[in-house]
Amino acid sequence: MAAVVEQPNRDRLVQPALHVSQETRSDIDISHRNPKMHGNAIAAEPEKAFPPTMDGADAEKAAPHEQDARHLGSSTDEQEDEQGPSSPTLPRARFLMLGTGLGFGLFLSMLDSSIVATSLYTIAADFKEIHGINWVALAYSLTYLSCPVLFARISDVVGRKEAFLAAFAIFIAFSLGCGFCQNLQQLIACRALQGVGGSGLYSLTMIIFPELTPDHQKPYVGGIIGIVLAVAGVLGPILGGILTEYASWRWVFWLNGPVGGVAALVFLFTWPEQKYLPVHDKRKWAEVDFLGSFLLIAAAVLIVFPFQNSSADVNEWSKAIFLAPLLLGILSLFALFAWQFYSERRWHGERAAAIPLVLLRNHVYAATILNTLCMGFPYLLSVYIFPNRFQVVNGQSPLYAGVMLLPMLGSTALGSAIGGLANGNKNRLFETVVVACIFMLLGCGLETTASSDLAIEPKLMGFLVFIGLGFGLSASSSTMIAIFESPIREHAPAQAIIAQVRTLGGSLGIAASSAILGVRTRSALTGVVTEAQLAGLGSKVSNLSPEQWTAIRTVYTDAFREDMIICCAVLTLALVCSMGIYRRNRPSIPEQEQNRYREERQRKETRDSETVLAEDTV
After folding, report:
1. Which residues have a Cβ under 8 Å from the Cβ of 427 and sit 6 or more positions away?
2. With DSSP H G I counted as helix, E B as strand and the rest as coil, what are the percentages for the chain, rounded to 5?
3. Domains annotated on the chain, with CATH
4. Rounded to whole angstroms, what are the CA distances from 269 to 24, 105, 200, 402, 431?
5. CA–CA gap between residue 326 and residue 317 (Å, rounded)
6. Neighbour-count burial of 62, counting CB atoms closer than 10 A to its CB (0-12 exposed, 13-18 middle, 19+ buried)
7. How far apart, in whole angstroms, are the C-alpha atoms of residue 269 and residue 594?
8. Chain centroid to CA 98: how far?
9. For the purposes of burial, counting CB atoms within 10 Å of the CB of 192, is it exposed (0-12), middle (13-18) or buried (19 or more)?
10. Name one GO cellular component term (predicted).
11. Could you say which DSSP state residue 424 is in?
């Protein structure tokens, strides 16, 4: 009887251990996150406890079952470490519909970064303004590159769905506004605000898509996103040419209204219930790093602005209008990193930093940032200057100039698909990035052989294939690196930063090309071609004399070659930066994903333990 009297207390200790194997993973998490309960279980473990009715023989029979139960509970913990928190899988049909809404958001935002490439000279002719016309493209690019990280952090506070719909609303509203503008200044202003919405669509798609994709399909997310970026970036000039030639340049912007509206509704009505959503820490407004976001925006805009503006004057680079914003931009960049270091020490990484330093301490991710910045430079530059070259040098229509980019479209999509498939299981991201740099470097180098002949050179189309293939490989691999090299807690800013630097590189490319063309135009065409004739290049080429026509083709070809030479220099730097992506003893893609879940679980357990200890102390 004495043994029976002592048993109830011991029985209470055994029952949770037996019950562990039947609980869900979330229940296991709760027991592990409570140090008091965890400690009691460990302390009681050496005692052999059996139900009060057991005799010695029964106890011996029960002991193996108890061990099995404990082992099963332990293996459940290990499974969670390996696979991360389990949640129901979204039904395939619903996932496809949701992915369609997300994909069109990303598609439209990227489309508008290039769709005006074949419409610029038509818009300039309509408004009778050639100087400043590139700001129609750059205004969108500047705000597009400025706000991705801010939108990512806002989504941590208000939720992914709400932030995405807000970005869609801004994008659609100012797209329609662009179509109704009556002068160039209004159009530039609306394009800038349209870019704010576009940046949200861009970064939030890169965040939401991987979060809702089943784990076994995540290695292919980079390829899918890369294909969307590729198709949108290259299809933009083609679609812009069709609308400009057969309708009006205003439809380039009005198109976003109905298409974007339908995509937003599809996204809204297919957004999953809470049980299908991944669990991530909810942020508060007070945790958002608004100062860091402001400094990041200021640095991006102020560094790009002077290079674009320098095309207005051949001697601009020595003037205050060039030097002042450039220096302010560099100072903003230094201030940003100083603030991030202070913020990390002050709040120990709990604040939603604009640029989490934990990401930059990972040499693979840091090298990817630099590589992506350099790879974005020649890609977006090519998307803009090739249609313009086909129109001005080769005398083609906006539609035909856009169609000439089809080889680049196909090869970019192919490169994105290859990048995803090559890294579906084994980690070949370093090799993928290196090959991407080599392809783009080869393509840009070969493009320097272009001539000023009126006839289109077929070889230029073939060289575009190398540029597209390289960018496709780069886009898919950089997206995958952002997924697998970032802590789960910082996945949103990790994707947003990659998106931001890619666009920053492209904006610098457009600005550099604009500056080069502006300098060459003013030095070689002053007194040869009037301002009115320059403003009407897109629609009044036939009014030029043969001598003027030859002079213009020569200037544009020289500027084109110089653009490609600069692209080669930037891509050489990209190749050097890609060496930082190499890592010895690389884990496979599934192993890397398991490591992310394990680290996140350990972080949460440490945080919860500290919280319990603090409460006990109080």
Report:
1. 586, 587, 588, 589, 592
2. 80, 0, 20
3. 2-79 (no CATH), 93-594 (1.20.1250.20)
4. 29, 15, 19, 35, 41
5. 10
6. middle
7. 32
8. 19
9. buried
10. plasma membrane
11. S
The percentage of the chain sitting over the pLDDT mark of 90, rounded to a whole number, equals 22
CA–CA distance, 78 with 396 (Å, rounded to integer): 63
Do residues 105 and 267 touch, judged by C-beta distance below 8 A? yes
pLDDT at 278 over 90: no
H helices of 248-362, where? 251-254, 256-270, 290-309, 320-347, 357-360
Between 76 and 112, whose confidence is greater? 112
Q: Which of 56-65, 407-416, 538-547 has the lowest mean pLDDT?
A: 56-65
- C-alpha distance from residue 517 to each of 260, 348, 381, 531 (Å): 35, 48, 12, 15
Output the pLDDT for position 607.
61
How far is the C-alpha of 428 from the C-alpha of 586, rounded, in Å?
Answer: 9
- Residues in contact with 64: Cβ distance below 8 Å, sequence separation at least 6, in sequence order: none
Q: Which residues pair with 288 in a beta bridge?
A: 352
Residue 80 in this model has a pLDDT that exceeds 60: no
End-to-end CA separation in angstroms for the chain: 43
346, amino acid identity: R
Residue with tokens 């357990």: 605
- Predicted model pTM: 0.72
Res. 598: pLDDT tops 80: no
- 308 or 184, greater pLDDT: 184
Q: Is residue 46 helix, strand or coil?
A: coil
**Helix (H), strand (E) at residue 380:** helix 363-392
Residue 100: closest CA among 282, 241, 228? 228
Q: How confident is the model at residue 81 (pLDDT cuts 50, 70, 90)?
A: very low
Selection from 420, 469, 417 nearest residue 442 by Cα: 469
Q: At which residue do the structure tokens 């980079």 appear?
A: 222
Q: Which of 142-151, 171-180, 373-382 has the lowest mean pLDDT?
A: 142-151
Backbone angles phi, psi at 112, to 5 degrees: -75, -10
Contact 386, 464 (CB under 8 A): yes
pLDDT tens, 93-135? 888 898 889 989 999 998 888 788 778 778 888 887 776 777 7
Torsion of CA 190, 191, 196, 197, to 10 degrees: 80
Alpha-carbon distance of 492 to 479, in angstroms, equals 12
User: Which of residues 543 and 377 earns the better pLDDT score?
Assistant: 377
State how far Cα 305 lies from the chain centre.
22
Whether the predicted pLDDT of 30 surpasses 60: no
How many other C-beta atoms can be found within 10 angstroms of the C-beta atom of residue 61? Answer: 11
Cβ–Cβ < 8 Å for 437, 575: yes
Closest CA to 162 of 285, 276, 264: 264
Q: What is the pLDDT of residue 434?
A: 96
Here the tokens at position 382 are 């090519």
Question: 277: which DSSP letter?
Answer: S
CB burial of 161-187 (b: ≥16 within 10 Å; e: otherwise) equals bebbbbbbebbbbbbbbbbebeebeeb
Q: Is 288 helix (H, G, I), strand (E, B) or coil?
A: strand
The confidence score (pLDDT) of residue 600 equals 62
